[in-house]
What we know:
This protein is α/β, with parallel strands linked by helices. It contains 14 helices and 15 strands. 34% of the residues lie in helices and 17% in strands.
Amino acid sequence: xxxxxxxxxxxxxxxxxxxxxxxxxxxxxxxxxxxxxxxxxxxxxxxxxxxxxxxxxxxxxxxxxxxxxxxxxxxxxxxxxxxxxxxxxxxxxxxxxxxxxxxxxxxxxxxxxxxxxxxxxxxxxxxxxxxxxxxxxxxxxxxxxxxxxxxxxxxxxxxxxxxxxxxxxxxxxxxxxxxxxxxxxxxxxxxxxxxxxxxxxxxxxxxxxxxxxxxxxxxxxxxxxxxxxxxxxxxxxxxxxxxxxxxxxxxxxxxxxxxxxxxxxxxxxxxxxxxxxxxxxxxxxxxxxxxxxxxxxxxxxxxxxxxxxxxxxxxxxxxxxxxxxxxxxxxxxxxxxxxxxxxxxxxxxxxxxxxxxxxxxxxxxxxxxxxxxxxxxxxxxxxxxxxxxxxxxxxxxxxxxxxxxxxxxxxxxxxxxxxxxxxxxxxxxxxxxxxxxx
Length: 438
């Protein structure tokens, strides 16, 4: 069949399988098309758009455009200064002035030439772009946490599954060999029966200082669109960008900022990636600050029917420790330690459990975009991982134990807790959300 008649997604799948052996359909490319040193033909090129290009978004953007198989053709942000910076990065990479910039993410999703999008918006803005992108058959790389609420996470999972798109969550620790090895030690019984996983997340809000007095938004910043589905609130210089994490209208604080990392690894090591706890309880302190009001000095425990507990505390070292009857292993982003030390010398055999191996998180996403295989951090696992954080926040808010049915993803006989599984979106966005799910 003529390659031009093959749907682009199917073509990428076919040529991706052969890429290691030979270049398919070679073409002559100029530096202005794909950048100096590029060796990828137009047929094999992955065309992407970026939605959200702040701190994390710019990092993701830089990574993607550094890869010769990617062509970033569109960037979107409600902050004009950020999207102009992102456009310059792309144009500089490709030696042209072709990258389009948008204020409305829907214009990126509507482009038929885009294969995939990266989403790095604030937490309260993940759900609608993700569902709309899935509905438009775009493959998606989205930063953690998956969603602002558990019900929104369920909606994202349903959309990704329904429309059969590739999803990668920015839980990059899954592509770190230290974390994978620690999980394999736990899964293979090298520590004996695991009874506790101690998870350490940051304990207090990391506020970047500035004025909290209401004022007019700066020129070029579409503040109303930045708020989006969140309740209306007056603009203040320290509300947006980095500091959104410490405001309940937009995030769950350090718990939901980090649970998608360390609770995710805890689930991976305990083979509960697609289920969840049955009992959750916790305590914490709610700041009296006029603006920054997410929980601090907290702890919560999540009990599983499998017979172990994930104990999550701000007072633990940042990382996680699998604790078993015969020893423990601790892992963070810089080291791995164990007792007894000999555990670290473990060599696995052909009959041992080996976990999905990825040493390049974004590279894994691009490979799976071509092969249509599941990524190292797929959507349903990301949902289950951050759900632990959401459940912890809910239990702390209610100041009591809550009972959870992980199969039905419902609280048991608890209307007060059930109310906290979702939110009413502001203005037009509730309808946009419902229409996207239809």
